[in-house]
Amino acid sequence: MDYLKLNCMKSMNKFLLLFFLLLAPMVNAQEAEGEDKADSLPLMYYEIDPKILTFYQTTGKKLGYVVVEVSVVVRGQENYDHVELNKPLIQDALIDYFNRLDQAAVSDLQKRESIRQKAAERVSGVIEAEVGKKIVEDLLFTEYIFQ
Fold first, then answer.
1. What is the pTM for the complete model shown?
2. For residues 57 and 74, which has the higher predicted lDDT (pLDDT)?
């Protein structure tokens, strides 16, 4: 009797193992299909217009300013529309961010990529808080002038 139970348990374990081994690729394929749909949406570039023009912190009495033309990168028309709808929030976030930078950061070419990444994080956070999901893929500086 114990031999039959043991044999039955082994058969059941083999069946379950085979079942899960066959089921796992199907689940992964469905997950990948969902990701592919999101990746298949076209990249769209929303240009923030007018350009961001703001002053930054300097030493002394001289006033420094920076002019930045920004494009927000999203996937799909729906996300593009979200960015367009929330353009004032994006402009406010960018102006606030650049106002807090000092002259050394704004004028250093080595720090420009870091500034762009932090600006992208700021914009992404603002939009995510408003929309409820992360939709900003990237942020590009298409023009960057400082004095």
1. 0.71
2. 74
Number of alpha carbons in the 13 Å side-chain half-sphere of residue 15: 6
Q: What is the DSSP string of 78-124?
A: HHHHHHHHTHHHHHHHHHHHHHT-BHHHHH-GGGHHHHHHHHHHHHH
Query: What span, in angstroms and rounded, lies between the C-alpha atoms of 82 and 41?
Result: 15
Could you give the C-alpha distances from 4 to 17, 115, 140, 143, in angstroms and in order?
Answer: 20, 70, 69, 78
Neighbours of 69 (CB within 10 A): 16
Q: DSSP for 60-72? A: SS--EEEEEEEEE
Tokens matching residue 101? 């930078």
The tokens describing 95, both together, are: 């102006």
Hey, how many other C-beta atoms are within 10 angstroms of the C-beta on 113?
10
Write down the pLDDT at residue 40. 87
Distance from C-alpha of 125 to C-alpha of 87, rounded to nearest angstrom: 13
* Contact between 17 and 9 (Cβ < 8 Å): no
